[in-house]
């Protein structure tokens, strides 16, 4: 079921991060992480070669109002993005009556390995289920992207299928693993995680 989410006036805060809408002043931070070879390619787009590339993307983020800027509290920099997009599940008979969106995320290479993306994604998942009224969220990664796989598994998503996806920006096909997280499954996963580790965030 198609559903629109406008995050332009939404601000989410975690222990180490603030998630908010994009601003024109974020251009240099966006270019700083998006211009690093390999970061965009893991998500299906070519790394930015000029600030004008980043300016075009920034304008789209601001117009579409469905992508959070991830701000690192300690240094005040925008270090990544987390978007709420249309989902492949809308075309599946089993899921098409659900209010469902797809999560897509990118994080600056300088901040990999610190648990920041799961922290950001948990805040967005909670927003989607408790404020935006979604029934489910989907997510996916290229089969060779083990870093994204670990994030998705940490968040409690369930594997559904592997498909061939054409990444237009890279002009090639990728095997992509698709996952889903139902609202009730998220509640069960959070409860189980709290029992296992009361200090988890």
Detailed description of the structure:
The chain has 201 residues and is an alpha+beta fold. The chain has one domain: Gcn5-related N-acetyltransferase (GNAT) (Aminopeptidase). 30% of the residues lie in helices and 28% in strands. It contains 5 helices and 8 strands. The chain has an 8-stranded mixed beta sheet, with helices on both faces. Helix 1 (27-34) packs across helix 2. The chain starts with 11 loop residues before the first strand and ends in a 5-residue tail after the last helix. Residues 193-201 have low confidence and may be disordered.
Topology, pairings included?
Layout: E1 12-13, E2 17-20, H1 27-34, H2 51-64, E3 67-72, E4 78-85, E5 100-107, H3 116-130, E6 136-142, H4 146-154, E7 158-167, E8 172-182, H5 183-196
Parallel strand pairs: 5-6
Antiparallel strand pairs: 1-2, 2-3, 3-4, 4-5, 6-8, 7-8
Helix pairs in contact: 1-2
Name the CATH superfamily assignment: Gcn5-related N-acetyltransferase (GNAT)
The helix/strand order is EEHHEEEHEHEEH
CATH level 1 name: Alpha Beta
Q: How is the main sheet built?
A: 8 strands, mixed
List segments where confidence is low: pLDDT < 50 over at least 5 consecutive residues: 193-201
CA-based gyration radius: 16 Å
Q: Please, how many helices?
A: 5
Largest beta sheet: what is the strand line-up?
1-2-3-4-5-6-8-7
CATH topology: Aminopeptidase
Q: What general form does the structure show? A: globular
SS-based structural class?
alpha+beta
Give the distance, in angstroms, between the N- and C-terminal Cα atoms.
31 Å
Oligomer: single chain
> What fraction, in percent, of the residue positions are helical?
25-40%
The CATH architecture can be given as 3-Layer(aba) Sandwich
């Amino acid at each position: 079921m198609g559903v629109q989410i406008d995050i332009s006036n939404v601000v989410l805060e975690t222990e180490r991060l603030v998630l908010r809408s994009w601003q024109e002043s974020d251009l240099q931070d966006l270019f700083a992480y998006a211009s690093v070879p390999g970061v965009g390619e893991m998500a299906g787009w070519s790394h930015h070669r000029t600030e004008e590339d980043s300016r075009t993307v920034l304008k789209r983020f601001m117009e579409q109002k469905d992508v959070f800027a991830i701000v690192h509290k300690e240094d005040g920099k925008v270090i990544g993005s987390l978007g709420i997009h249309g989902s492949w599940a809308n075309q599946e008979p089993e899921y098409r009556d659900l209010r469902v969106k797809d999560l897509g995320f990118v994080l600056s290479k300088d901040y990999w390995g610190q648990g920041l993306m799961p922290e950001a994604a948990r805040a967005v998942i909670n927003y989607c289920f408790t404020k935006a009224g979604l029934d489910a969220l989907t997510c996916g990664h290229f089969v060779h992207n083990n870093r994204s796989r670990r994030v998705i598994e940490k968040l409690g998503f369930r594997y559904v299928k592997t498909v061939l996806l054409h990444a237009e920006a890279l002009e090639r096909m990728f095997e992509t693993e698709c996952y889903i997280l139902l609202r009730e499954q998220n509640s069960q996963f959070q409860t189980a995680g709290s029992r296992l580790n009361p200090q988890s965030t």
